[in-house]
């Protein structure tokens, strides 16, 4: 009896077999004898026994591996724990943890924004971000009252509670609770609160939602209050806050739209004995300013709105303790008042007057007495002023004025220029950005008499030159001026009646090279560099 095998063995399958099996594997043999079949069966039984023995050995090894595997897993777990321990120890010595708390507080203060944050980005306010760095920073921030002394809220906060981030809300459901929680962290620090109440929807809803906020205003230790409001809907808000503020020092009132004078409360902050600074933008109109604020208390006043010169005279005469003032005025509909008495401001140090585009003339200031004025700025919008009256600079400040800046589209005659310079001999820094003949200007500075030198203390000069009629004459007058205001080791300062010029900046319009061909190249190679080198004077020549 013969059997045909269905298995076709390839050479690769035969090569790795034992010899007793290889002898029976003939790929060309189609049938096997009975003896051969018995041999195959015997070999099969033998190899099955070998397989069983190998399986037993594997099971024995598995029994040995199991405890080792368990031990290995325990060691891996201990390894992970040790790595964590090392990381914790490293973190203890990390730079962020080694910073002293006092120094960390100073860093936190530098992180506070200088301007109100946008409502959409309130979650990125510095106090909240600092609390999210690490547990130490959170504890440090929450325990540092000055970090929480300032808060700015916008109308959107009152309009919809969803605009307030959850990190601020915590468990508090409304704005009054947020104010209470925020300022509670500030302790007894002087507080700063800002409201942006420019609201384009129903103002009655806004007023209703603000009632709870107004009840929570920390009047007793509020130091700064900033309001951006919209008339007439916010007159109620202004009336409510016109109560006692024992610690209030600074206010900022800004109006976004046209002012309705009838909506202005007649008396604001009359019970604020420490109020000394006011910033009014679009807030004042000619009527009703007498008792609007306690003017005599103010040391800093900024008024950015177009009011007439009568109102300016009233304000300047009633701000008897003013030290720093910035005013915009439009006197096109008013005549210059006749002042028969001197207005004395003995503490005024810094004054800026912005003459707007509708102004017809510069106010006469010959009756103003500013004995301590150090810095004066006149700014003009457009060329509507063709002349300057006498008394352009208060004569009584000629011994204290150090910094003078005049900028705008305005023209001077030569006599007016000389008169201006004669009344301000103490100036050390001068900025001119007006339409004057700078050739005559430099000649006047150079050729003034020995006994009455113009600007003898001048050290810094900045000139925005509008046009040049004669380039050669201009350059000659400029180099003469530099020679007269510079000295070196051979010419000691004691031999000079004027101060040494330290810095000169000249700016020219872009078309100066078109009107005066090759001007820029000529001014670069003009022989004044020996003056710069010998006397270490800084000269800048640039286009604008």
TrEMBL record:
<protein>
    <submittedName>
        <fullName>Predicted protein</fullName>
    </submittedName>
</protein>
<dbReference type="InterPro" id="IPR032675">
    <property type="entry name" value="LRR_dom_sf"/>
</dbReference>
């Amino acid at each position: 009896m013969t059997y045909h095998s269905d298995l076709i063995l390839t050479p690769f399958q035969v090569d790795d077999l034992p010899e007793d099996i290889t002898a029976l594997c003939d790929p060309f043999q189609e049938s096997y004898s009975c003896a051969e079949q018995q041999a195959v069966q015997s070999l099969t039984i033998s190899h099955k026994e070998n397989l069983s023995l190998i399986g037993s050995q594997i099971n024995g090894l598995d029994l040995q591996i199991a405890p080792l595997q368990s031990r290995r897993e325990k060691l891996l777990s201990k390894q992970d724990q040790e790595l964590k321990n090392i990381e914790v120890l490293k973190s203890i010595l990390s730079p962020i943890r080694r910073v002293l708390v006092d120094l960390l507080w100073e860093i936190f203060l530098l992180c506070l924004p200088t301007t109100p944050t946008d409502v959409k980005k309130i979650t990125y306010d510095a106090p909240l971000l600092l609390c999210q760095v690490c547990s130490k920073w959170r504890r440090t921030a929450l325990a540092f009252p000055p970090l929480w002394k300032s808060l700015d809220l916008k109308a959107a906060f009152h309009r919809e509670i969803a605009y307030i981030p959850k990190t601020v809300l915590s468990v508090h459901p409304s704005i009054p609770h947020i104010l209470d929680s925020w300022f509670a962290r500030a302790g007894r620090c002087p507080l700063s609160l800002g409201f942006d109440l420019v609201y384009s929807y129903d103002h009655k809803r806004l007023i209703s939602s603000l009632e709870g906020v107004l009840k929570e205003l920390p009047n007793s230790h509020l130091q700064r209050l900033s309001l951006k409001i919209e008339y007439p809907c916010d007159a109620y808000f202004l009336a409510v806050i016109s109560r006692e503020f024992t610690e209030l020092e600074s206010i900022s009132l800004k109006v976004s739209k046209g002012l309705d004078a009838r909506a202005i409360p007649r008396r604001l902050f009359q019970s604020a004995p420490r109020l000394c600074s006011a910033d009014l933008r679009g807030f004042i109109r000619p009527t009703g300013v007498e008792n609007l604020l306690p003017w005599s208390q103010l040391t800093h006043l900024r008024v950015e709105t177009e009011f007439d010169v009568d109102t300016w005279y009233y304000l300047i005469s009633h701000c008897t303790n003013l030290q720093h003032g910035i005013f915009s005025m439009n006197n096109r509909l008013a005549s210059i008042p006749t002042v028969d008495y001197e207005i004395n401001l003995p503490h005024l140090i810094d004054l800026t007057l912005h003459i707007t585009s509708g102004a017809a003339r510069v106010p006469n200031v010959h009756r103003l007495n500013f004995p301590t004025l150090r810095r004066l700025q006149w700014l003009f919008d457009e060329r509507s002023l063709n002349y300057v009256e006498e008394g352009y600079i208060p004569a009584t400040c000629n011994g204290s004025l150090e910094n003078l800046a005049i900028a705008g589209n305005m023209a001077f005659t030569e006599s007016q220029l000389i008169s201006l310079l004669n009344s301000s001999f103490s100036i050390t820094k001068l900025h001119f950005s007006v339409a004057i003949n700078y050739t005559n200007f430099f000649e006047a500075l150079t050729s003034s008499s020995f006994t009455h030198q113009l600007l003898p203390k001048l050290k810094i000069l900045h000139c925005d030159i509008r046009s040049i009629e004669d380039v050669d004459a201009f350059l000659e007058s400029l180099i003469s001026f530099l020679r007269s205001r510079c000295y070196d080791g051979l010419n000691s300062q004691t031999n000079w009646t004027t101060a040494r010029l330290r810095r000169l900046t000249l700016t020219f319009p872009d078309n100066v090279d078109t009107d005066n061909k090759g001007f820029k190249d000529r001014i670069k190679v003009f022989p004044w560099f020996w003056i710069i080198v010998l006397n270490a004077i800084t000269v800048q020549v640039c286009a604008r």
